[in-house]
Design a protein that fits this description.
single chain, 2938_t:CDS:1, about 85% helix
């Protein structure tokens, strides 16, 4: 019979079951879990900020393109009228 590959979760739970129960280790695991949660929240916030920043840059770029296109268009019309 062929063994099925173990997932990270099952390996982790097996290791947790084999570890001796030590209050310092459990305290550290709680701290690690809290830090991991904080990092995940920071990552979500930074991702939202990056998306918002990209949107604002695209919006400014569109406004500038429209502005310079209008200037070019008005100059071309003035040259045609002067001729």
């Amino acid at each position: 019979m062929r063994k099925q590959p173990q997932t990270g979760i099952t390996i982790r739970s097996e290791l947790n079951n084999k570890m001796p129960i030590n209050p310092q280790i459990t305290d550290l695991s709680i701290v690690v879990a809290q830090l991991n949660s904080k990092l995940q929240n920071k990552l979500k916030l930074l991702t939202k900020m990056a998306i918002k920043n990209e949107y604002q840059i695209a919006k400014r770029r569109k406004k500038l393109t429209k502005y310079f296109f209008e200037i070019c268009k008005s100059r071309t019309l003035l040259k045609q009228q002067d001729s």
